[in-house]
Amino acid sequence: MPPRKPSPAASRPAKIAAPALERFLSLMLVMVSVTILALLANLVLVSPVQHYASQNRLYQDIRLALAEGSAPTGPVNPDGTLVEPGTALGVLYAPIIGIGHEVMVEGTSAAQTMEGIGHRRDTVLPCQVGTSVLMARSGAYGGVGQAFTKLVPGDKFSVTVTQGSCTYEVISARRPGDQAPSAPAAREGRLTLTTASGAPFMPTEVYRVDAKLVTDAFDHPSVAFPTGALPSSEAAMGTDTSNLFALVLLLELLVGVAIGVSWLWRRWGRWQTWIVGAPAIIAVGLLSATAINQWLLPNLL
């Protein structure tokens, strides 16, 4: 009687489970990789879409506010409360550098520069007597600030606020260490456009463009913030670490999703787990990446 051949199942070597520590480290590496990839995808691919959606919403808001004359004229509302950061203030038009219309918002922390050009709250509004400071990102979330670097002396652009429209003419561009122009006198108006320069998504220094008002300046109410009173998160290249607890919760949720996917992989199988787990990992990863952009990365990135 010929010897029986072993079945294919019997000829396979038995699977040996990896040690618990190795499985845990592998899971952590997957989590870190997903977060990094989600962060890069958010900066390069998702952030322009988020910025576009924010600008569409803000543009509708400011059109109505300008028509009603209800847009803020200073840092304080008529009822004495501070203007909420993120409130639409006006629109900047600079076709010469490819900016059709970009809505300006109150505040210059990372959360505001994600939506549009941020107005530094301890300065007057554009078109008013004095010096106004605006900040915009150079790479992510529309990268509007990158267009600022194309401005040269003599270029003109306009701004519309609730008091009316005005025109500015560029007088200089400067980097750290360069001499700033003299302060405006009497009823002169100035505007400083602030962004970052360097390799894409890797800013190295602050870049400023100074412009003078060439139309009549509007009066401004008293400024509620003395110079130097704003938090460091609203300074150029500032980071906002005020809400790290929420970021920790998101990262914990990401760990929980990764553990759940690992468990499903063993229980269900590869394709079933991908169908259920991939959308969850991508969604939580993008939320975590957005939180990292808002609370850990510079506001001019």
From TrEMBL:
* Gene3D superfamilies assigned: Sortase
Key words, A-Z: Membrane, Transmembrane, Transmembrane helix
Question: Membrane-spanning residues where?
Answer: 24-46, 244-265, 271-292
InterPro entries cross-referenced by the UniProt entry: Sortase_dom-sf
Q: Which residues form a coiled coil?
A: none
Cross-referenced SUPFAM superfamilies, in alphabetical order?
Sortase
The protein's name? LPXTG-site transpeptidase (Sortase) family protein
Protein's organism: Agreia bicolorata
